[in-house]
């Protein structure tokens, strides 16, 4: 653990944000202190760029945003896109069409924005999610009549597809296992869950870990001098890639097993504790 940390990547939901989707005062103070000590801060999230709390991040002095599980990287506050990797429009439409008969809500991430279909808007309440998360889904998406029409009309690259499932009477997500088995061995796809009983599809090779590697190379910072904090499966590659991988106290078991250090939960200012213990060595 005696590594001089020069770059820190923080997942948002379940990590830097508490369960009300807020950044705590303690986490804010620790981030400002790290930046004051010359450490570069980035967020690394499954969210679309347009769905991150941009104003708050810029006010804290965070310099980079890795979004859509690594499919886009932006420099802040300029909002300059440094990297983008998306599925071809026809490939994304092929996947969406294949899921039509399985009663799966598909959200398409296109150029930093998230799009869903209007027919699913009122069904968000049926999902096994907190009220805060349901409100986030409603407010962070643009709802269109047809995603495939929208994608084709704009010849759009799709950075990510998020698949949301509906529970049956026993609380089991319908079609989840079928969909997972369909895509887990597809060589064109990287499939993970970001929590919330979902599945997330990116182009093969798109991961938070590879984006951390891209950013470290761009900044001339060796990976051994990086730290990453996360809580769910879409953080695994980033935690394994970083010089010090940190699992939140509320992280899934596989993330904790892969981590070098387990901090406190996102409700207990776990990010601040990790920064002060590992990066500021207080």
How would you summarize what this structure contains?
The protein is built from ten helices and 14 strands. It has helices spanning 25-36, 54-60, 89-98, 131-140, 147-153, 176-183, 208-219, 236-241, 253-258, 270-279; strands at 7-10, 40-44, 64-67, 72-75, 80-84, 105-110, 113-117, 141-144, 160-164, 189-192, 198-203, 226-230, 244-247, 261-262.
Oligomer: single chain
Calculate the terminal CA-CA distance, rounded to whole Å. Answer: 13 Å
Number of strands: 14
**Overall pLDDT confidence:** 95
- Give the biggest beta sheet: 8 strands, mixed
Helix-strand category: alpha/beta
Percent helix: 25-40%
What characteristic shape results from the CA principal axes? globular
Rg over CA atoms, rounded to whole Å, is 18 Å
Strand content: 15-25%
Strand line-up in the sheet with most strands: 5-4-3-2-1-12-13-14
Q: Give the number of helices.
A: 10
Low-confidence stretches: none
List the helices and strands in order.
EHEHEEEHEEHEHEHEEHEHEHEH
């Amino acid at each position: 653990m005696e590594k001089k940390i020069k770059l820190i990547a923080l997942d948002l939901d379940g990590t830097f944000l508490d369960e009300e989707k807020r950044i705590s005062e303690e986490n804010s103070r620790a981030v400002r202190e790290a930046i004051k000590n010359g450490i570069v801060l980035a967020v690394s999230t499954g969210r679309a760029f347009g769905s991150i709390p941009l104003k708050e991040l810029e006010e804290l002095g965070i310099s980079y945003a890795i979004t859509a599980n690594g499919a886009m990287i932006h420099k802040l506050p300029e909002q300059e896109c440094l990297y983008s990797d998306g599925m071809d429009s026809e490939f994304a439409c092929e996947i969406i069409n294949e899921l039509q008969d399985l009663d799966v809500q598909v959200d398409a991430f296109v150029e930093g924005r998230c799009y869903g279909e209007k027919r699913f808007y009122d069904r968000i309440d049926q999902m096994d999610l907190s009220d805060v998360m349901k409100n986030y889904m409603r407010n962070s998406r643009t709802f269109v009549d047809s995603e495939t029409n929208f994608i084709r009309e704009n010849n759009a690259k799709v950075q990510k597809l998020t698949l949301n499932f509906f529970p049956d009477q026993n609380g089991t997500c319908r079609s989840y296992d079928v969909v997972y088995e369909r895509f887990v061995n597809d060589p064109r796809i990287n499939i993970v869950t970001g929590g919330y009983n979902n599945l997330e599809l990116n182009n093969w090779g798109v991961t938070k870990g590879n984006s951390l590697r891209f950013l470290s190379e761009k900044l001339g910072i060796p990976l051994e001098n990086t730290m990453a904090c996360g809580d769910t499966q879409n953080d695994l590659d980033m935690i394994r890639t970083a010089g010090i991988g940190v699992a939140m106290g509320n992280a899934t078991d596989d993330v904790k097993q892969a981590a070098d250090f387990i901090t406190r939960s996102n409700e207990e200012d776990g990010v601040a504790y990790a920064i002060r213990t590992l990066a500021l060595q207080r």
